[in-house]
Design goal:
It holds the Pfam family Aminopep. One of its GO terms (molecular function) is aminopeptidase activity. InterPro entries: Aminopept (IPR014553). Keywords: Aminopeptidase, Hydrolase, Protease. It is built from 13 helices and eight strands. With about 350 residues, it is mostly helical. Helix 6 crosses helix 7. The longest helix is centred in the C-terminal third of the chain and has 26 residues. The N terminus is likely disordered.
Length: about 350
């Protein structure tokens, strides 16, 4: 993602806006803003088939829309994902991101400030349709001594409450990523467990990756080489820094010394990144802007959410004979387990992977 998040960690959070609107209000203004933003998005939708039939439609847009409909058909017929009008519509919002997510943590903690809602459960961010509103909210939290981070989001799911459209914000992506996100977002509609972001995102990420593998195989294509190795190395670098910060915050250092040690850790992360870039990437780093901009706890929150349980879901898919219907039933059964039992079952699947 350009500018705000270079590694796709914020691109597609399941942000069920209807669920937010049904939640207990912190301010009427905030929820009125969400309602207006969602209404504007719905109002901007146009049927893809109408745009494809219109000779005035831009040729490149038409090509991407045709690709999206092929992927949409594949998702339902081959991956057994929901068949509805989601991604059969298109909306041009005239801006680079559909929403901006605001993350916040205490100064000496990597635990997010949670926002809980009756349908979505507890999530680690608040969404805003206007960047200025997100910045204003971040300033208020900073006055309370919290670390904050704002990330632009190019797509989100309403979990089937509305027919989610394709968005102009998605058109900057490669064809590969464009198709992947359709699979990912429809997976959120297939199953969503309120209050467990790592479970939901790992499940949808597995569906996306296996779906892409099957998509390319069905089309006789070789998957693009991509830069997964560089991305994974960067994530591992950040997760190692997070682990060191966790140990620091669990120590009994005085506040002044802990604050200095925190900043020293962020400088270490920058040094490690520069060394990795020179050693492994021939001096070409995708993440320079991210690493050189201000770092804090909140900026590290999204890392690991998408990948934590992906191998466990892959193992579960194999256990179910690679049958999508059986796999989704097994995922739903996992979701019905108590939290501790579910995590233990996922950990067991990881060990058997």
């Amino acid at each position: 993602m350009p500018n705000t998040c270079p590694i796709d960690l914020l691109r597609r959070f399941a942000v069920p806006l209807l669920a937010l609107l049904l939640g207990g209000c912190s301010t009427i203004d905030y929820y009125a803003h969400l309602g207006q933003g969602q209404w504007q998005l719905l109002h901007a939708r146009q049927p893809v088939e109408r745009l494809l039939a219109d000779p005035a439609t831009d040729a490149d847009l038409a090509r991407r829309l045709r690709l999206s409909q092929q992927a949409r058909d594949f998702a339902s017929t081959q991956l057994q994902l929901p068949e509805n009008r989601s991604y059969r519509l298109y909306a041009d919002l005239g801006r680079p991101f559909v929403v901006w997510n605001l993350f916040a943590t205490p100064e000496f903690s990597l635990e997010p400030e949670l926002h809980c809602f009756p349908i979505a459960g507890c999530v680690a961010y608040r969404g805003y349709y206007q960047q200025g509103r997100a910045r204003g909210a971040a300033a208020l939290l900073q006055q309370q001594g919290l670390d904050t981070y704002i990330g632009g989001v190019e797509a989100y799911s309403t979990l089937g409450w509305f027919d989610d459209p394709l968005l102009n914000t998605m058109l900057r992506w490669s064809d590969e990523r464009f198709v992947a996100v359709i699979f990912h977002e429809l997976a959120h509609q297939q199953y969503y467990l309120p209050g467990d972001t790592a479970f939901n995102e790992s499940f949808a990420t597995f569906v996306e990756r296996e779906g892409l593998r099957q998509w390319h195989a069905a089309r006789g294509e070789t998957p693009p080489a991509g830069d997964d190795r560089q991305r994974q190395q960067f994530i591992e670098l950040v997760l190692a820094s997070r682990e060191r910060l966790q140990q620091l915050y669990a120590s009994d250092l005085p506040e002044q010394a802990m604050r200095a040690a925190k900043q020293a850790e962020f400088e270490r992360l920058r040094r490690d990144y520069r060394a990795l870039r020179q050693r492994e990437w021939a001096g070409q780093g995708r993440y320079d802007a991210w690493i050189e901009s201000p770092l804090n706890n909140a900026k590290l929150l999204p890392f690991g959410l998408y990948d934590q349980w992906v191998p466990a879901f892959a193992a579960l898919f194999e256990q179910q004979g690679r049958d999508w219907h059986a796999f989704y039933a097994a995922v739903a059964a996992l979701g019905r387990l108590p939290d501790a039992d579910r995590r233990a079952r996922l950990a067991s699947l990881l060990q058997n992977d």
